[in-house]
Every structure is written in structure tokens, then in C-alpha cells.
């Protein structure tokens, strides 16, 4: 379990998170949903160990990978060279990079291995960032706004990918304010507003995608 317990975070006099608690189990795809500036990036950064809260703690029973909203890969290096750097940083054998069972091969990046990051489409860039975050074989994957700035087709591909990673046993926590993609990807969602978790919701998988999307719009707005 990845367990955020009573997290409080302030920037000066601004309280961004107040006693926020949430859990993610392995095999689950969970969303922190909320409008802009509600503290989603702050919460995920705390989960990834990049920020320290004033109060509360994150307990984890495994490794955590993080995919930031902005591209964290080196634009002028190829996909392979970027991933080799990540493999080295994770102390993983570089000879495993792009092997058939590697995350990057399973993410469909093999035919793009020699391409510079700067030449990739938004969707492929996101896949490369996910592959980098998976290089250390984490048990949990945190993703900040994985659908931002993607076209609809790429958004749908990434939604499917998140569900697949969860079904392979990873615990996924992503942030988003995109109701259609939250409806497509999240088995559970936490609504973050005014520094608090306002609701925890499990969208009914028996409902149509349109109906689930409509209900999420009611919760978080468009
Ligand atoms: N380093 C910082 N110093 C001061 N204020 C900050 C800092 N980082 C974020 N904030 C403020 O904290 C609030 C929450 O920011 P955060 O980026 O966590 O929200 P968010 O929900 O991820 O927003 P978005 O969807 O726009 O990315 C915002 O008002 C932001 O301006």
C-alpha cells in the first residue's frame, strides 16, 4: 500500500493541503482529481519524495516512480540514450534496455529507439517518460497530469496504458482535471478542493463511459 496520512503542506501563508489522507494499493488505478491550483502537483511531489510536508507522512511498501507533467527527458538525446541514463541511475543492467520484455518495448517504443526526444509526438514523449519512470521497476507509479497537452487519440492510449499497468500489478496514482480521461482510467478517485479531500468516489464500471464522465463533471467541473 502507498499511504498518504494527514498531509499538510504550506507555501508561506498559503495552505495547499490540509490533513490529506489517501491510499493506493498495488493493482489499482486511482486519480487525484481537481481544478487548477488545488495542490495536485504538490501532493504527488510529496508522494515521490521531492517535497516534504509540514505535517503527515507517506508510508510505502515498495519503490515509487514519478512521471512529472513536463517532459523530464533530455530533448537532444535519443530515446535509447535517455533510457540508458535512467537504467544507470537505477543501477539496472543497461544490456536489458529495449529487451523484448522491457517496459520500453512493451510501451511500443522499440521502433523509436534512435529518435531524438525532440522529434517525438506528445503521446510518444509521454510513453518515453513513463518508460523512464519504470526503469527501476517501481511498485507504484505517480503521474502528474498525464493527459495534459495530448490529442484525443494519445489521451485514450495513455488511459488504456494506465489501466494495463494497474492490471499488471502496479499501483497507479495520477492527477487530472480531464473528466473523460478520469472516467476512462480511474477505478477510484479523490476530489481535491480547497486543500481538502472532499470526496472519494468509485465510478460504477457498469455505467457507460459517457455517464461516468457526466458524473465526474458534476464532481469537479469541466
Ligand atoms: N514553490 C511554490 N511556492 C509558492 N506557491 C506555490 C509553489 N508551488 C505551488 N504553489 C502554489 O500552490 C498552489 C497549488 O499548486 P499545485 O501546482 O500543487 O496545484 P495543481 O492542482 O497541481 O495545479 P495545476 O493543475 O495548475 O498544475 C497554487 O496556488 C500554486 O500557485
UniProtKB/TrEMBL annotation:
Transmembrane helix as UniProt keyword: no
Record bears the keyword Nucleotide-binding: yes
Molecular function per GO: ATP binding; ATP hydrolysis activity
ABC transporter domain mapped to chain residues: 2-219
Family statement drawn from the similarity comment of this UniProt entry: Belongs to the ABC transporter superfamily.
Protein name as it appears in the record: ABC transporter ATP-binding protein
Entry keywords, A to Z: ATP-binding, Nucleotide-binding, Transport
InterPro entries: AAA+_ATPase, ABC_transporter-like_ATP-bd, ABC_transporter-like_CS, ABC_transporter_ATP-binding, P-loop_NTPase
Amino acid at each position: 500500500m502507498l499511504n498518504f496520512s494527514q498531509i499538510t503542506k504550506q507555501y508561506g501563508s498559503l495552505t495547499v493541503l490540509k490533513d490529506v489522507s489517501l491510499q493506493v494499493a498495488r493493482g489499482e488505478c486511482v486519480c487525484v482529481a481537481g481544478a487548477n491550483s488545488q495542490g495536485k502537483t504538490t501532493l504527488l511531489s510529496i508522494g515521490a519524495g521531492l517535497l516534504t510536508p509540514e505535517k503527515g507522512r507517506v508510508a510505502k511498501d515498495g519503490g515509487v516512480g514519478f512521471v512529472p507533467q513536463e517532459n523530464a527527458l533530455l530533448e537532444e538525446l535519443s530515446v535509447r540514450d535517455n533510457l540508458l541514463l535512467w537504467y544507470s541511475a537505477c543501477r539496472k543492467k543497461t544490456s536489458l534496455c529495449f529487451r523484448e520484455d522491457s517496459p520500453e518495448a512493451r510501451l511500443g517504443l522499440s521502433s523509436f529507439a534512435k529518435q531524438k526526444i525532440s522529434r517525438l509526438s506528445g503521446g510518444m514523449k509521454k510513453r518515453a517518460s513513463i518508460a523512464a519512470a519504470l526503469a527501476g521497476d517501481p511498485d507504484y507509479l505517480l503521474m502528474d497530469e498525464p493527459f495534459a497537452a495530448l490529442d484525443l487519440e494519445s489521451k485514450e492510449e495513455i488511459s488504456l496504458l494506465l489501466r494495463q499497468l494497474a492490471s499488471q500489478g502496479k499501483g497507479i496514482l495520477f492527477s487530472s482535471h480531464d473528466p473523460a480521461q478520469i472516467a476512462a482510467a480511474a477505478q477510484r478517485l479523490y476530489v481535491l478542493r480547497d486543500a481538502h479531500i472532499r470526496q472519494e468516489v468509485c465510478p460504477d464500471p457498469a455505467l457507460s463511459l459517457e455517464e461516468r464522465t457526466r458524473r465526474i463533471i458534476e464532481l469537479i467541473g469541466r
